[in-house]
Recover the amino acids of this structure.
């Protein structure tokens, strides 16, 4: 196993709250997938959950070495939760293309938050296998 890259991000929850208040549905739909919106809205601490997913997406792009470049979209990444509550990543679009091109086998992600901040760390791993098919998706806008 080889570590391809590591990324981390920290963001103030109030920053995301202000973005959500200012831009409303446009922001929700541009940054978060339908699944993420449903999950976060159902949480008692929804702003913290949205901020954590924002951080995770930033950390993932750092781990794969792209940052925000042409061909990469917020909704190329979907942060879901296993039954245990642990976050995991599903990818599509430009992120999937980059991961497959680099031979990245997995991206592990962790998220933490409190009332004022959220943070996430992502580790991109190469172990000779392909990124799991059940965590790849094609967005309708890719057609």
């Amino acid at each position: 196993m080889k570590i391809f890259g590591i990324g981390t991000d920290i963001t103030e929850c109030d920053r995301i709250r202000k973005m959500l208040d200012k831009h409303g549905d446009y922001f929700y739909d541009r940054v978060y997938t339908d699944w993420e919106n449903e999950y976060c809205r159902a949480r008692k601490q929804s702003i913290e959950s949205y901020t954590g997913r924002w951080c995770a997406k930033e950390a993932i792009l750092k781990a794969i070495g792209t940052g925000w470049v042409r061909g990469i979209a917020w909704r190329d990444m979907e942060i879901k939760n296993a039954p245990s509550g642990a976050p995991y990543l599903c990818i599509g679009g430009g992120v999937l293309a980059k991961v497959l091109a680099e031979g990245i086998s997995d991206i592990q992600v962790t998220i933490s938050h409190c009332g004022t901040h959220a943070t996430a760390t992502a580790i991109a791993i190469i172990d000779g296998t392909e990124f799991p098919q059940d965590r790849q998706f094609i967005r309708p806008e890719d057609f």
Notes: Residues 2-142 form a domain with the Ribosomal Protein L22; Chain A fold (CATH 3.90.470.20). DSSP finds four helices and five strands in the chain. The radius of gyration is 14 Å.
